[in-house]
Predict the 3D structure of the following.
Amino acid sequence: MTARIIDGKAFAASLRERVAAEAARLKAAYGLVPGLATVLVGNDPASEVYVRNKGKAAEKLGLHSVHRSLPADAPEQEVLAEVARLNADPSVHGILVQMPLPPQVREAAVLDMLDPAKDVDALTPTNAGLLLSGRAQLVSCTPAGVMMLLKEYVGDIAGRDALVIGRSLLFGKPAAQLLLAANATVTMAHSKTRDLPALSRRADILVAAIGRPEYVKREWIRPGATVIDVGINRVDVGGGKTKIIGDVAYSEAAEVAGAITPVPGGVGAMTIVCLMRNTLIAACLQAGLALPQI
Ligand code: NAP
């Protein structure tokens, strides 16, 4: 068997068109330009690239974009003050504070300062709680992207066994909640889980968000299962070159899975456009408008 490829890149391209069209409609109909602010503390090269890409994507889709850069040694109070200023800025509807933060800045303090209505990464306790209560309007971007891909490529997942490997606040926990809300039977695994290969073999939907290159092997996969690889691991390929690979051993997994996301071009391709979609949703909620159907 050769797995069907879940083409996140193609889906993301069509979603980008819908986001751009909706942004244009909001501007024409209401003079509303959804605004996204990114905040970067320090100069980690990978974070700089992420933040720049987010800003570029926002502008390309017709959103307003601002960026705030703070030095790596910025005191926590300074970061909190910046977040408070963006909370109060009416041209900013979504705020993304790029993680990880330097050690002197507590992530929890920043999230407690962030206005949940502008929390487009859905990391605040308010948005996490709303997700748990089945009332979320802003959902963490990467899990939201995964659910869109599952809807498009698998359809109804009610009653399916889903395993999420990884329990981060950013991905694993919200992904498990969304799968549960879609009526899957959800198991969560982590570094203390016993016999992960056996647990994995039971899964109709196997979601790997571990951060370990090619950790999930062919023997772990139930024949015909849907494999969602969230991992983004940069590995050396010699000659000073690197490449990105996932948490799943892709080529061998693709021989047994029914459907699989490639890395790159799968889940990762969805995240930024889902962030733009969240910015649109946040802008509509703040303006008292109906939510965009995209
Ligand atoms: P994270 O915070 O690094 O946490 C990793 C999770 O994997 C933890 O829950 C950990 O368990 C678990 N884990 C580690 N080793 C394990 C093992 N040997 N067996 C089972 N579980 C193990 O995770 P994250 O931020 O969710 O990121 C995970 C991966 O997804 C990374 O490669 C990241 O780059 C990628 N990612 C991609 C996107 C995107 O596509 N845009 C977004 C988010 C994340 P414990 O909790 O027990 O430590």
The pocket of NAP is lined by residues 142, 165-168, 170-172, 189-193, 196, 209-212, 230-233, 267-268, 271 (CB under 6 Å).
